[in-house]
Structures are given as C-alpha cells and as structure tokens.
Design a protein that fits this description.
Blueprint lengths: L13 H13 L5 H12 L5 H13 L3 E7 L6 E7 L1 H18 L5 H4 L3
Antiparallel strand pairs: 1-2
Helix pairs in contact: 1-2, 1-3, 2-3
Amino acid sequence: MKPATAADLAPIGSFEEQVMLAVLRTAPEAYGMNVRRELEKVARRDVTIGSVYATLDRLEAKGLVASERAASLDDAGSRRIFSVTPLGALAMTETRAMRERLWEGVELRALLGSA
C-alpha cells in the first residue's frame, strides 16, 4: 500500500482542525487533558475528554498525528503525548487554503445588520 498524500485526504473537519491546532499549541506537553484545556481556553467551548481522545485516535489512524508514551512528571504513570505528523501539517495547510478560497468574496455585513 502506498503512503497517503494530501491529495488522498479529505479536508479535515472543524473539530479535527481545532484539536490539531491545540496539539501544536501545547507541544511538547500535548497529552489529552492539556489539549482539552487549550481548546476550552482558546475556543471558549466546553469539550469532553472523550471527544478529544476519540478525535486524536481517529487522526492517528489517518496518520495525521502520532503519539508516544512518556513518563508523567507528577508520578501519575505514563501519558500519551501527541504530535502532528508532516502529513498532518500538509492536511492542515490544504484545509486552511480551501477554507480561505471559500471565504473569498463572501460579505456578511448585510446579513449581520447592526449586530
């Protein structure tokens, strides 16, 4: 089986993109709970730890993130530390470019009125 390329990938979903950005923002301590906290802080939304791990597992199965076990600094055992792979970075770049192309020429002021 040949390695996946960006052309083989569907654009990543909004929550997947947010999780991957949180992984990058929290590196080198990108374990599940840190990723969740970063999402809640920056995205200002409640996120369950289960949805974060389900998304990380799905992204890892697609080859967009990788994980490795690392010893915890607070003696809590080991943690899975996540990182974005080169393929993941490419998928993020392609998804961002697609989103920006879609936004070109869109004007929302009339719809927003005086909001």
